[in-house]
């Protein structure tokens, strides 16, 4: 599973080491050599699990689909986004993490009322 592209539809076979990777960044993370460029790429469709080759010099719009199952594998990549959240227990079970935004009014204490009366009167 690729951590760089969340919706990867195909895996690519690196021509340099003959191993399958989900994306070029996965190859860079796991291999100790750069990805070698080639004119013919080998792909593995993740939907039908069949391999196929494409000539990159003669790539056209109809080449964006798997020749076996017609899966559209050239899609806009969804990359993971950072999320900010509060870690804790389920708020439905333990509500101590929730802030109560209601305004609380306090009745003045007997001492504060006596001081107020002494100042006014």
TrEMBL record:
List the InterPro entries hit by this protein, alphabetically.
Answer: Mito_Tim_assembly_helper, Znf_CHY, Znf_CHY_sf
**Could you cite one Gene Ontology molecular function of this protein?**
zinc ion binding
Record's keyword annotation contains Transcription = no
Question: Can you supply a Gene Ontology BP term from the record?
Answer: protein import into mitochondrial intermembrane space
Write out the GO cellular component annotations: mitochondrial intermembrane space
Q: Which UniProt keywords apply?
A: Metal-binding, Zinc, Zinc-finger
Q: Which SUPFAM superfamilies match?
A: CHY zinc finger-like
| Residue span(s) of domain CHY-type | 1-71
Q: What's the protein name?
A: CHY-type domain-containing protein
Which organism was this protein described from? Coemansia guatemalensis
At the highest ranks, the source species' classification is: Eukaryota, Fungi, Fungi incertae sedis, Zoopagomycota, Kickxellomycotina
